[in-house]
Design the sequence.
């Protein structure tokens, strides 16, 4: 919805719609504000789908330009960001198609797998497991893990869990039904959990900790104490 | 409640979108099933880790360059005005 019902019963215009109206009136600085507000999120969606930095940069630029050119078609009954995400997803898929020499690519592909739908690794994780990795190591683990999921799972997880969109807005942005979004989200969450368990489960940390303590003792004997 | 039934409602429990009665039943299952408790806790942790460590962050210099390129192309003209 683009309007907000205030407590007094007055209809307030959504700030994005007010900005769109200003752009339609010729105020390009209002579009500058919209681009700044959403460019980071749009880049992440493009990167999640294309898995290619250069493509994601191009998609981001093309999506904002296309949205600008099509602004007259933006309906006040949908949110601007949801509309922008839809353009971004389409541009990303077109880019993938080009890379795959015309092969059809859709947000529905690669959904046949049952991986992760029934949890197999049920070892508990170490407390605050991310603390055992450097920021760079953790980033690599998270990226590698989410890359293993189908694009349709990655983008649903990004929109719902990272960017905090509602199920309804995610469904609208991706052109999916609400049950389809829910199904993808559950499987994305479970698959990510399963894959992260390989790095974060408690057993591994006990071994790692034990190995590092042994290493420290040896180093200590040699007169050089190094922190693991 | 079986583990399969619990799993079917896992997302709703995580998202806080279950009615009080069902929530009580799910929480009761968690008290008696260590496997589901681990799955529930580690799934929540998975979401929290991805939320607090955003991937594909653009360096500000690159963001500025892309932003300028977008605005330059928009200023060349569009079909909306």
Sequence:
């Amino acid at each position: 919805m683009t309007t907000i019902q205030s407590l007094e019963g007055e209809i307030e215009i959504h700030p994005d719609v007010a900005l769109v109206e200003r752009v339609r009136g010729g105020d390009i600085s209002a579009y500058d504000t919209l681009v700044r507000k959403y460019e980071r999120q749009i880049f992440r969606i493009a990167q999640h789908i294309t898995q290619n930095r250069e493509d994601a940069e191009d998609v981001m630029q093309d999506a904002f330009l296309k949205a600008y050119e099509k602004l007259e078609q933006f309906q006040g009954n949908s949110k601007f960001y949801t509309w922008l995400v839809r353009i971004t997803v389409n541009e990303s898929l077109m880019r993938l198609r080009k890379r795959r020499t015309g092969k059809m690519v859709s947000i529905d592909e690669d959904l046949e797998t049952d991986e992760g739908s029934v949890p197999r690794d049920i070892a508990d994780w170490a407390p605050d497991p991310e603390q055992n990795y450097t920021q760079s190591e953790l980033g690599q683990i998270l990226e590698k893990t989410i890359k293993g999921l189908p694009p349709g799972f990655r983008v649903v997880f990004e929109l719902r869990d990272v960017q905090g969109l509602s199920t309804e807005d995610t469904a609208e942005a991706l052109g999916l039904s609400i049950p389809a979004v829910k199904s993808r989200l559950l499987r994305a969450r479970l698959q990510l959990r399963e894959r992260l368990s390989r790095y974060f489960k408690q057993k591994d940390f006990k071994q790692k900790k034990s190995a590092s303590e042994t290493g420290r003792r040896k180093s200590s004997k040699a007169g050089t104490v190094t922190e693991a | 409640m079986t583990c399969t039934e619990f799993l079917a409602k896992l997302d709703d429990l995580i998202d806080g979108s279950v009615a009080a009665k069902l929530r009580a039943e799910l929480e009761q299952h968690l008290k008696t099933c260590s496997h589901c408790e681990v799955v529930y806790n580690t799934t929540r942790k998975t979401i929290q880790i991805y939320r607090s460590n955003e991937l594909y962050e653009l360096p500000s210099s690159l963001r500025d360059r892309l932003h300028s390129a977008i605005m330059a192309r928009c200023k060349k003209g569009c079909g909306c005005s």
